[in-house]
Amino acid sequence: METNIFNNYRQWITEQKMPKGRRVVLLAGLDLFAQQGYNGTATAQIAEKAAVSQATIFKYFKTKQDLLLAIIQPILENLFPLYRDDFLPELDQFNTLPEIVHFIVQNRYQFIKDNAAAFTILLTELLTNPTIRTLFTQVVQASQPMIARHLLGALKKAGINDDLDPLAVTRTVIGQLLAYFIQQRLAPQIVIDESRDLQLIEMQILRAIQK
């Protein structure tokens, strides 16, 4: 499949040059794996949602596991790195800690929100699938130089707590956003005020990392 900068995974799948049958199976798998989990989804359900036969699924993907990898690999090998390379250098333009935290929270949360199904599958599979964990670890390791240069460089320039190491900073920022995302996925009945909630998240992050 072609590689280009993209922010919305579903849109990216739609725009790729591939047989229609493969595309509809990928999109159906994306939806059902996110809604029901990998183990809770049968290939018959994917076929029904995609309006194709199970034979069509196995024409393009030898196993259900192959379909899962075909969904997740582009996320880890294309979506994350390209978004990282586009997002991190933008941090260099900010001078104050509140500006940096505001940009990170708003930008990264929108990215997570735009790709909610993909993130749901990835987070679930990271807990149980060693192949996915290996792919994710490779992306994280490859990202460390850019994170150190742009994210930590900008934060230190703006006055971050000197006692915090890179992992602690990353965990604090991403952890707050993922916790909020997971809350919405697990308890969608809870009424939220997204603007207010993100503002509170920014305040919590600032309290945790500023001097």
Summarize the structure.
With 211 residues, this protein is mostly helical. Helices cover 76% and strands 0% of the residues.
Characterize the structure shown.
The chain is mainly alpha-helical. The chain has a single domain, classed as Tetracycline Repressor, domain 2 (Orthogonal Bundle). The protein is 76% helix and 0% strand. The protein has 10 helices and no strands. It has helices spanning 9-15, 20-36, 43-50, 54-60, 64-87, 97-114, 116-128, 130-158, 166-186, 194-209. The radius of gyration is 19 Å and the shape is elongated.
The total beta strand count reads: 0
What would you report as the Rg, rounded to the nearest angstrom?
Answer: 19 Å
- Average pLDDT rating: 87
General shape: elongated
Reading off the top of the CATH hierarchy, the class is best stated as Mainly Alpha
Main β sheet profile: none
CATH fold call: Tetracycline Repressor, domain 2
**Helical segment count:** 10
CATH superfamily: Tetracycline Repressor, domain 2
The level of helicity is over 70%
Class by alpha and beta content: mainly alpha
Q: What fraction of residues sit in β-strands? A: under 5%
